[in-house]
Amino acid sequence: MTEEKAILLCQKGDMTAFSYLYDEYVKPIYRFIYYKTHHKETTEDLVSITFTKVLEKIESFDGSKASFKTWVYQIARNNVTDHYRTFKQHEDIVDRWDLSTKENISDDTSNKLQIERVEKYLKTLKPEAREILLLRLWGGHSFKEISEMTNKTEASCKMMFKRNIEKIRTDLALLIILINLIA
Prior knowledge:
Number of domains: 2
Distance between the termini: 57 Å
Order of helices and strands: HHHHHHHH
Number of strands: 0
Oligomer: single chain
CATH superfamily of the largest domain: RNA polymerase sigma factor, region 2, helix turn helix motif
Structural class: mainly alpha
CATH topology of the largest domain: Rna Polymerase Sigma Factor, Chain: A
């Protein structure tokens, strides 16, 4: 079955096709929400809410406005935003991101240190830039999809991504020079 066929069947009331859509998107949506929440149980709840809303609203999906993937991610993003508005965490929602947690990384000390360095570095970036990097690099989204998810123009997403990749390259080059000077 194709995504398009599953969507059409769901829109016509055949909800058995929804399992195809769920299977296609549950893992990437889980990762996306987990990057934002850092909490397994919260992520599971928000994934459940996301797919419930997708199922409830699938009749209103319009493929001429956005891809199904973008539409599902926007629902997930809105659910995360609503969650933080409801529960008023101490941190700002845009500052919530993650690559992994202590529960999900191996016991290898080297890996832990590398993850901590990446996390520390990414915290130096502006939240909107960090989100675009995560969506592009870890989520594998196109700039068009990212622009639709973040309500920014595609050009501004590309520019922000390019500037931050250049910043990372420059910082990495400086770090390598410093390490070589010390060694």
